UniProtKB/TrEMBL annotation:
Gene Ontology MF terms: helicase activity; zinc ion binding
Record-annotated DNA primase/helicase Gp4 N-terminal Bacteriophage T7-like domain positions: 38-78
Entries under InterPro entries matching the protein: DUF7146, Phage_T7_Gp4_N, TOPRIM_DnaG/twinkle, TOPRIM_dom
Pfam family, one: Toprim_3
Organism superkingdom: Bacteria
SUPFAM superfamilies per the UniProt record, alphabetical: Zinc beta-ribbon
Name the UniProt record assigns to this protein: DNA primase/helicase Gp4 N-terminal Bacteriophage T7-like domain-containing protein
Top-level taxonomy: Bacteria, Pseudomonadati, Pseudomonadota, Gammaproteobacteria, Chromatiales
Organism: Thiorhodovibrio frisius
Amino acid sequence: MRSIESAMVRQAAQGAGWLAVLDELAGSVLESALQRPGRHGPCPVHGAGQGDGFRLFPDVDRSGGGICATCGAYPDGFALLRWLFGWSFPETLNRVAGVLGLSDRPSPRVRPLLVTRSGMPAQACTPYPDQARARLRRVWNESLPPGHPGAGVLRRYLVQRGLSGVDFDSRVMRFHPALPYWGVAETGHPVSLGRFPAMLALVSATDGSAMTLHRTYLQPNGAGKAPVPAPKKLMASGQNRSLVGSAVRLCPVPLGKNPVLGLTEGIETALAVRAMTGMPVWAALSATLLERFAPPPGLCRLVVWADKDRSGVGEQAARALHRRLGPSVEVRIRVPLMPIPPQARGVDWADVWQHAPESRLAA
């Protein structure tokens, strides 16, 4: 590509959002990091055995960058993808352009098969858009509603989290009895860690259309999350549009006078707030997506139930959202008063609910 086209691709990636680009090109490799921008986790190159030495920048949707404690910083999405897969800059540029629907030629191009750093085709990890959409449909069609006799593991999990009686839209959250879990070995090869029951949640775009699925892998007895490196994952969407503004719409927002909506990062946090307040609550899934949340038309008041992190990321995202929405929507921010335990990175409203399950809060 010529230099002017390079600038065009860079501008288009920033406009569409690097989260969507990285999800499409490196979704399985970066899944846990994409859910927690700004927070440390296992390095996608060195493997889970190397602790938590990697993180995406908090502004990853704009910059596309991240940092590895061993290898250094990668300031933008192009540098990050080159590090992950060993691509040249022209190859990286072409792949990003393909995701964004740009091309050197007027005729459509077929996106080349993605190759991992080890040289192994990664089609199983990062599918083509049609394959990704087909996989989403298949997983959703294989799932069961929460009240189904075969969804007992999900109900037991919600019971032990103190969330068994919480009302939510059963069309949004379902249960999969045996969902494959794929990780990345230290060699860079995809590796199956088995099948686990999973809680599925539908992620909707700003217009209400389906974007992708969020998975929470569970222990077979429902006693907690599965013993895997990243029990909470987003599936590749197969869509060339940004995740910005998307959310898990756990409850419909009642139409009428002065509608109010609660917003959290996590799904279980949203259910806990629902239990404590009775208000409809949506989950943005990460601090980055919470900061860029797009409220539904006609919303009068948004209550942000922020995470309380040692890093301050959760509260910073809530304040940034408040500033961005300005006078268009009344925004209130609630932060847990409980202290952060010594070994914890933070607390959220699900922790508050666990410690005081009879709590009733006003928005």
